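Comment thread on ticket #2218

A.B. wrote:
> Attaching the input chain for the structure job we discussed in standup.
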Amino acid sequence: MGQPIAVTRKPTGRRGVVRFEINRTLTGMGHERYTSPDDVQGDRPPDVLAARLFETGAVQSLHIYSNVVTVQLVPGRDGAELEDVVRGLYIHYKEGVTPSCAA
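C.D. wrote:
> Ran it. Output below, let me know if you need it in another format.
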């Protein structure tokens, strides 16, 4: 259930920073900044995405504005796995996983 997000990785002028442009707005005109997993307080789409990105171990901090996700990577990481995390934000049932049934 859900549709993948179209993600385009864009170059930046800063070493260790990656930027993703997506085909959905996550924050409207608001800015969300997360400097650690402790900053993730809610369950809105930008919060869920931030939590999932931190779980990869490749993210030091991130900023989300509308449809742009800017990530400061942990030194030594290239963030190759992050694009799939962003793409799968709205995928609720993944291949090979049996959904639980409410009784």
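A.B. wrote:
> Thanks. Noting for the ticket: The first helix runs from residue 45 to 55.
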